[in-house]
Amino acid sequence: MTMRLVTIAAIFLASTCWADERRIVIGSVNPDLSAGARALLGGRNEEGIRLTIKGLKAANGKNQEEMALSNLCAGYTNLGDFETALGYCDDLLQRNNKLWRPYNTKALIYIYTKQYEKAEQELIKGEAINPNARSMKIARALYLDATNPVAPEIVIDDSSPES
Fold first, then answer.
1. Which long-range CB contacts under 8 A does 109-115 form with residues at least 24 apart?
2. What are the pLDDT digits (tens) for 81-127?
3. Which residues touch 123 (CB under 8 Å, ≥6 apart)?
4. How confident is the model at residue 29 (pLDDT cuts 50, 70, 90)?
5. Residue ranges in 15-81 assigned as alpha helix (H)
6. What is the Cα–Cα distance from 130 to 79, expressed in whole angstroms?
7. How far apart are CA 77 and CA 111, in angstroms?
8. How far apart are CA 158 and CA 163, in angstroms?
9. CA Rg value for the chain
């Protein structure tokens, strides 16, 4: 994985820690879920996952459960444990297939693992729900970069002229 891809992915994944942009987890309703989200956003993935699992067990209703599953999907993706991440993404989508973030994260996983046909399918599903999401656009760009890289059109000859 190139450094550019790693950098873009880190920025992207930091933005995927919520099930829906209008429902930010940070608050006092479920302290473990809140602390888990903060840890994930801070790059402390193992701590974030531990707290989020604890918060999921104490979740009060569908929204908190969905937020926890979304955060676990993103957290395990951050760790590179794609199989576990996909499990949480799929659990979330079985509960609510109207959320674009799990499709987005699944697309990223498939890009990382060079499963480009699957990535394309997840991108299509996520874009159908939220075509203007910045994270979806980044994932689409990563997909295009991986499947159809742009060759440089300008070549600079920096060799010294012969005297």
1. 109/77, 109/82, 109/85, 111/139, 111/142, 111/143, 111/146, 112/1, 112/9, 112/82, 113/82, 114/146
2. 999 999 999 999 999 999 999 999 999 999 999 999 999 999 999 99
3. 103, 104, 107, 136, 139, 140, 143
4. confident
5. 31-41, 45-57, 62-79
6. 26
7. 12
8. 15
9. 18
Q: Are 55 and 64 in contact (CB under 8 A)?
A: yes
Q: Can you read off the two tokens belonging to residue 137?
A: 């656009």
Which structure tokens are listed for 69? 């599953």
pLDDT category of residue 163 using cuts at 50, 70 and 90: low
- Which structural domains are found in the chain, ordered by start? 3-147 (1.25.40.10)
Q: What is the residue type of 73?
A: C
CB 70 within 8 A of CB 17: yes
Give the tens place of pLDDT for each residue, 115-140: 999 999 999 999 999 999 999 999 99
Q: How far apart are CA 71 and CA 93, in angstroms?
A: 13
Name the residue with tokens 């006092």: 28
> What are the φ and ψ backbone dihedral angles of 20, each rounded to 5 degrees?
-155, 140
Other CB atoms closer than 10 Å to residue 97's CB: what's the count?
Answer: 11
**Read out DSSP for 115-142?**
-HHHHHHHHHHHHHH-TT-HHHHHHHHH
Determine the residue type at 151.
A
Question: Cβ(69)–Cβ(95) under 8 Å?
Answer: yes
